[in-house]
Amino acid sequence: MIDYVATFVSFFAVIDPIGTVPVFVAITSNQDETSRAQTARKGTLVAAGVLLFFVIAGQPLLDAMSIPLPAFQIAGGIVLFLFALSMIFGDGKPEEEIRSIDQRDEKAVYPLAVPSLASPGAMLTAVLLSDNDHFTIMEQCQTAGVMCGVLLLAYGLMRLATPITRLIGHSGASVVSRVMGLLLSAVAATNALEGLKAFANLE
């Protein structure tokens, strides 16, 4: 059985449901309530599809490319750590992604689903937490369930976006994003250290 708390914290940090709220508000500012609901639903479903693909196909892709898991853990840990640093010291998720908004009709896909919900960090986390060599099919299903639970939480927050933004403001969302970045940096360091330990045992 997986560690539900650790898995939830990992996905909460990389998906960052709270940091997604200002992005959602910005891209739906000119939409009515029905359209806002459709945008939130489509963005969540697309993000779930992308992340479930990495849960299911992540390990086979590594095997096909002859990449051992320890190497991916180390590389993934480094990338996640850099991603976490950008969350801590950069503009923060809301400001960075709000700037990427344009007049496209598919705002639910970009930037809401990708890269706001299904971020690069979330994709890497999905692969690392569903490795076939370390987790059973049942444990991978549990991980996918936790991941979908975080996405459902994000959907719920988007549906409550107006009062939440009024409550915490863009500055509050930015602070939360930085706290999540700090937690993610610890997760990234753990992944890299575990990869180094596993690589040492292979030698």
UniProtKB/TrEMBL annotation:
UniProt keyword Transmembrane present: yes
Alphabetized UniProt keyword annotations: Cell membrane, Membrane, Transmembrane, Transmembrane helix
Subcellular location: Cell membrane
The keyword Flavoprotein is assigned to this record: no
Entry-linked Pfam families: MarC
Residues passing through the membrane, by range: 6-27, 39-57, 69-89, 109-130, 142-161, 173-193
Membrane topology qualifier: Multi-pass membrane protein
PANTHER family: UPF0056 MEMBRANE PROTEIN YHCE
Family: Belongs to the UPF0056 (MarC) family.
Record-given protein name: UPF0056 membrane protein
Organism per entry: Stieleria bergensis
Taxonomic lineage from the root: Bacteria, Pseudomonadati, Planctomycetota, Planctomycetia, Pirellulales
